[in-house]
Amino acid sequence: MKGIISSVLVALVLIGGAIILTKKDPTVKSGDVPSAQNVEVVDGLQIINIRAKGGYQPRKSIAKADLPTVIRFDSKGTFDCSASVRIPSLNISQSLNFSGLTDVDLGKPKMGVLKGSCSMGMYPFEIVFQS
To answer: Is residue 20 in some structural domain?
Structure first.
């Protein structure tokens, strides 16, 4: 009988943990939907704003090609693997500030899709550069 009760308790803990881990931030409508609201041009510099904590939001951004561009990562107490960003095609691997802003210079990206992720590859993001 103790074995059955223990098994049920373990199952409940695992299910509860899975629910907590998959719960989405209610302020984010969908990480897969491209956001034009996170891209701005200031004094000729294109800034792509991405929040880094438990992944990257938005996960997909749309920006202009052939403009000097930085990704501005905003982290607030980020302690998971999203605190370290990788963009393999540009040979970029950078740790982010624990809290605050970190700019990653992309130069003048050409048209196409730029893919990045956390240091472990668990949290992907992409930026679509258009003309």
So the answer is: no
Q: Which amino acid is at 26?
A: P
Tokens coding 92: 């970029």
Considering the domain boundaries, does residue 23 fall inside one?
no
Give the per-residue pLDDT at 27. 39
End-to-end CA distance of the chain: 67
Taking only the tens place, the pLDDT of each residue in 59-88 is 999 999 999 999 999 999 988 999 999 999
CA distance 69 to 63: 9
| Alpha carbon 106 to chain centroid, angstroms | 16
Cis amide linkage into residue 109, ω under 30° from 0: no
Give the predicted TM-score (pTM) of the model: 0.73
* Three-class SS state of 28: coil
The alpha carbon torsion through 116, 117, 121, 122 (nearest 10 deg) reads: -140
Domain that holds residue 125: 30-130
CB distance 63 to 70 below 8 Å: no
Measure the CA–CA gap between 36 and 53, rounded to whole angstroms. 20
Q: What is the pLDDT of residues 39-56, one digit of tens each?
A: 999 999 999 999 999 999
